[in-house]
């Protein structure tokens, strides 16, 4: 595993050329298997950029939602076998959420439109409610939004940590993020971040897989006070994104 953060410039000619190839590749997957793209273009853009990044770094389009370990049996190359054989047939969508059945995509588009019209924030949290949320293993987008609002008011304190790669972070990250600790340089970046162990940490990635892995490492081996994973990652976050 590399100890240095790997940076890929999304504005470079090399990246843009490879991104165009990746888009043609995902178009072909959709056509070949009869899939549909996720109705949320931000999800598709993020995955396509992640696939491009991995192609440039590892020379293969590894799934950007999982660690690249070097183990041929474990590493997922898009479109991965679990997605084709289990996730899409059973759940209607692959783990990274870019490939869906047409039925899932249509239902999600309808649901997203309804939520955009009807969603309202709940009342502000009490301090006790904040502490209870920070004792959980997972929180959702509304809970994180409320916790960030409470932190701004001085009611609670925690660190919000992005465990995606530098390029993904530059492309967009949750407002209020305190540190970037990429999985490809996890231990080195964690040391440089100097996060206090007596303060709760909320970790997030694209859809919640990499951050769940980091959560286990931080909880089991690093002795942090509490580590909470943002369920569904930044792809499901409805709060403010810094782009």
Explain the overall architecture.
The protein has helices at residues 13-33, 41-58, 81-91, 102-118, 127-133, 141-152, 166-171, 186-193, 209-220, and strands at 36-37, 99-100, 138-139, 158-162, 173-174, 179-180, 200-204, 227-230, 241-242. The protein has 243 residues and is of the alpha/beta class. It has two domains: 13-116, Ferredoxin Thioredoxin Reductase (Alpha-Beta Complex); 127-242, Oxidized Rhodanese, domain 1, CATH 3.40.250.10. The strands form three sheets. Strands 3-8-7-4-6 form a five-stranded parallel β-sheet. It has a two-stranded antiparallel sheet with strand order 1-2. α1 packs across α2.
Largest sheet: 5 strands, parallel
Question: How many DSSP helices?
Answer: 9
Number of domains: 2
- The main sheet orders its strands as 3-8-7-4-6
- First CA to last CA: what distance? 29 Å
The counted number of beta strands is 9
N-to-C series of helices and strands: HEHHEHHEHEHEEHEHEE
CATH homology group of the largest domain:
Rhodanese-like domain
Instruction: Assign the structural class, choosing from mainly alpha, mainly beta, alpha/beta, alpha+beta, or little secondary structure.
Output: alpha/beta
- Strand proportion, as a percent range, falls in 5-15%
DSSP helix fraction:
40-55%
Q: Helices, strands, pairings?
A:
Elements: H1 13-33, E1 36-37, H2 41-58, H3 81-91, E2 99-100, H4 102-118, H5 127-133, E3 138-139, H6 141-152, E4 158-162, H7 166-171, E5 173-174, E6 179-180, H8 186-193, E7 200-204, H9 209-220, E8 227-230, E9 241-242
Parallel strand pairs: 3-8, 4-6, 4-7, 7-8
Antiparallel strand pairs: 1-2, 5-9
Helix pairs in contact: 1-2
């Amino acid at each position: 595993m590399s100890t240095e953060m790997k940076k890929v410039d999304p504005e470079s000619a090399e990246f843009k050329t490879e991104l165009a190839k990746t888009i043609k590749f995902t178009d072909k997957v959709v056509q070949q298997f009869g899939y549909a793209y996720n109705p949320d273009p931000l999800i598709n853009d993020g995955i396509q950029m992640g696939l491009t990044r991995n192609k440039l770094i590892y020379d293969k389009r590894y799934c950007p939602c999982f660690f690249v370990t070097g183990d041929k049996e474990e590493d997922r190359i898009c479109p991965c076998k679990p997605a084709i054989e289990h996730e899409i047939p059973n759940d209607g969508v692959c783990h990274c959420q870019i490939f869906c059945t047409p039925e899932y995509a249509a239902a999600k588009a309808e649901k997203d439109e309804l939520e955009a019209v009807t969603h309202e924030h709940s009342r502000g949290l009490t301090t006790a409610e904040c502490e209870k949320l920070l004792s959980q293993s997972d929180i959702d987008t509304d809970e994180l939004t409320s916790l960030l609002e409470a932190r701004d008011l001085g009611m609670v304190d925690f660190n919000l940590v992005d465990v995606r790669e530098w390029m993904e972070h530059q492309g967009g990250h949750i407002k209020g993020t305190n540190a970037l600790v990429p999985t490809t340089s996890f231990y080195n970046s964690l040391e440089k971040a100097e996060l206090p162990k007596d303060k709760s940490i909320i970790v997030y990635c694209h859809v919640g897989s990499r951050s769940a892995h980091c959560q286990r490492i931080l909880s089991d081996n690093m002795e942090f006070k509490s580590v909470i994973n943002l369920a569904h990652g930044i792809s499901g976050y409805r709060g403010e994104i810094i782009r």
